[in-house]
Design brief:
With about 80 residues, the protein is an alpha+beta fold. The chain has one domain. The protein is built from two helices and two strands, in the order αβαβ.
Length: about 80
């Protein structure tokens, strides 16, 4: 158990190690979602923006969504397993 998060393992790695240790079923449960105010915020697009600015803004906001989905989802997780 690493309550300090100094030696954090990827959830799938810990699930694999759990199954490799003899557990028959292991599920990952994600907890503590990152609050919306702490996630990256998209840029507002002005109605009067020209095509270049509109394209750049759409690309930027798309990348913000991708980063939020990969980096700012849940702060904690647990592997719940059954010993078989």
């Amino acid at each position: 158990r690493d309550i300090t998060h100094r030696c954090a393992l990827h959830p799938e790695t810990l699930k694999y190690l759990t199954v490799a240790s003899g557990f028959t079923r292991a599920d990952i449960e994600f907890r503590s979602p990152v609050p919306p105010q702490d996630r990256l915020q998209p840029v507002a697009l002005s109605e009067s923006a020209d095509a270049v600015v509109r394209n750049l803004t759409e690309a930027f906001n798309g990348n913000v969504e991708k980063l939020n989905a990969r980096m700012f989802t849940h702060m904690d997780y647990a592997v719940v397993a059954e010993k078989g």
